[in-house]
Design brief:
- There is one protein chain.
- The chain is an alpha/beta fold and 549 residues long.
- The chain has 19 helices and 12 strands.
- It starts with 11 loop residues before the first helix and ends in a 6-residue tail after the last strand.
- The relative contact order is 0.11.
């Protein structure tokens, strides 16, 4: 076959381009002299065959159309793959950003979900969702003008801390601020050995004393003990007035300190007002509470080991402060669902405790007012109504649960119950044995680091942990409305509410009780207002738009 102009050997793509550009160039069909294929003119010269040329043009157009359709489909397919894997990468990559001190506002985490909830079924993601921290970030830094200058001191403060671990921790933080106000030297605090837990631990057994001094060295003077020249001085023993303003310490206590040189405070908790204090003092309280009072390496290391074990399967966990313990039930007079024998033991314990002022308490009336710790059954019903699935890992932040049923009514709904007793080995717990405050420090670490923290009674640990979680950019903390909760449970038990109605109401009541930012508001009476350490905003949480709070 003879060709003309080389068109028959061109690529299909070129032909398509020519056709698409509207080129009217004809693609002739040629035949040889042997007469194969088409008509001939005289002398056997090759001639164009109109019918064949028309057919070829149609074929080229059809091929061109098919080529561009296939090209378009392939393009759409590859774009789909590109977008799919790009979006997966965006949402699955976890970016770890280390903040520089407390001054750098971290990036916004609007509607973020805890990293450890990634494996949870989509239907239950909402229960793990963190509240938005908005433009807030922690800021307990010291301004240069607030730095301590000179070694002169007005005297020495000896502190006899009282209560359990968290009550002592907040009290010591207040004493740090009071030492600053008074320009006094703080002697290592003595811990309470006479409380219900009867723990013999000293300050250096629980807290990293070197770190304590290092963090606060530019704020106050700290001494491990009285210097020799004052060792034989009999201190002035005085309990400070609760919720006092700085003026109380400056005008009343400082003159006494200058005179006696050594003062011993017999109480440490709640000795400083929650509100209307200088910003520098509020930030110092937070530096003491959330940084200086770090636990010993022994406790800190084991605590983080427990956290790692809880997260070994890349699933989140709830830390539940189930404060259904003998001392708290005796103190509050709450006996709901207890046997008469168990209730009587609590009454005897309360009447024998000289430092507890209330002796005759109507426990059921207090429960209906929301003043009792939730029972294990009530706690399980609450978590289930909120939406936590039955296979949720629940770390119990508490000592022994009181009553003949113990934790069993809770485990019937949530069998995956964990505590330091079964998460740590016997060898790991041996150094902490018989030291309840050291064990409480372990629980504190696990609670602060948890994906969700839930408490059943607004006691000292609940306040301390939720405040620390707010300080750490508002980690999710569910604050139960005990008063409405127990009344709704009673209605459901009496057949006045279906489970669906009950669950829907509980979710609605707690929609805005998840630890999101709000400002602490002063109350008419200090005892009735929100505790500073439960919500350090304002104080040591800043707003990117407004600067220091």
């Amino acid at each position: 076959m003879t060709s003309r102009g080389g068109d028959s050997s061109g690529s299909a793509a070129n032909a398509c381009l020519l056709q698409a550009m509207g080129t009217r160039r004809r693609v002739p069909e040629l035949v040889d002299e042997g007469g194969h294929g088409s008509d001939f003119s005289d002398g056997g010269a090759a001639v164009r065959t109109p019918s064949s040329s028309s057919y070829r043009r149609r074929m080229v157009w059809h091929f061109c159309w098919l080529f561009w359709v296939c090209w378009g489909l392939l393009t759409v397919f590859f774009l789909f793959l590109l977008l799919k894997y790009t979006s997966m990468t965006f949402y699955e990559v976890v970016t770890i950003r280390k903040q520089n001190d407390f001054l750098i506002p971290p990036p916004s985490d609007e509607s973020s979900i805890n990293d450890n909830a990634a494996e949870v079924n989509n239907q239950s993601l909402e229960v793990w969702r963190k509240p938005s921290s908005g433009d807030y970030y922690k800021c307990s830094h010291r301004l240069s003008k607030e730095t301590r200058r000179g070694a002169k001191t007005n005297g020495y403060i000896i502190v006899r801390s009282n209560g359990g671990l968290n009550q002592m921790k907040t009290g010591i933080s207040d004493m740090v601020a009071i030492a600053k106000i008074m320009n006094a030297t703080l002697v290592y605090p003595y811990l309470d050995h006479t409380s219900y837990w009867a723990d013999s631990s000293e300050f250096k057994d629980i807290f990293d004393s070197n770190h304590f001094e290092e963090v606060l060295k530019d704020d106050i003077q700290i001494a491990e003990s009285l210097p020799p020249e004052y060792a034989s001085v009999k201190p002035l023993v005085k309990p400070p007035v609760s919720w006092s303003k700085p003026s109380y310490y400056k005008e009343i206590i400082v003159p006494l300190l200058k005179k006696h040189k050594v003062i011993q405070f017999t109480q440490s908790d709640s000795r400083l007002a929650n509100n209307n204090l200088p910003k520098a003092i509020q930030r110092l309280r937070c530096r003491a509470m959330y940084d200086a009072l770090r636990f010993t390496d022994k406790i800190q290391t084991l605590g983080m080991k427990l956290v790692d074990r809880l997260r070994s399967d890349n699933k989140p966990y709830v830390a539940l402060h189930l404060r259904y313990e003998k001392d708290m039930l005796a103190f509050t007079g709450c006996t709901h669902n207890l046997t008469a024998e168990d209730a009587q033991k609590l009454t005897v314990m309360r009447k024998n405790a000289n430092h507890w002022k209330e002796k005759d308490i109507d426990g059921e009336a207090r429960r209906l007012q929301g003043g009792c710790p939730l029972t294990p059954r009530e706690a399980a019903i609450f978590l289930e109504a909120i939406g936590f699935p039955s296979d949720t890992k629940i770390y119990i932040v508490a000592g022994e649960i009181y009553g003949n049923l113990g934790i069993s009514t809770f485990q019937s709904t949530y069998p995956n119950v964990i505590s330091h007793s079964n998460l740590a080995t016997k060898e790991e717990l041996e150094p902490l044995k018989n030291h309840q405050n050291q064990l409480a420090a372990l629980d504190y670490i696990v609670a602060v680091e948890s994906d969700v923290f839930v408490y059943t009674y607004d006691g000292n640990m609940a306040k301390a942990v939720q405040g620390h979680r707010r300080f750490e950019r508002f980690r999710k903390t569910i604050v139960p409305d005990n008063r409405n909760l127990v009344n709704l449970i009673d209605k459901m038990d009496n057949g006045m509410l279906t489970w669906e109605e009950f669950s829907s109401t509980i979710k609605s009541l707690h929609e805005n009780r998840t630890g999101a930012p709000y400002r602490r508001v002063p109350g008419e009476f200090p005892k009735q207002e929100e505790n500073f350490y439960a919500n350090p905003l304002p104080g040591c949480i800043c707003n990117k738009q407004q600067g220091l709070t």
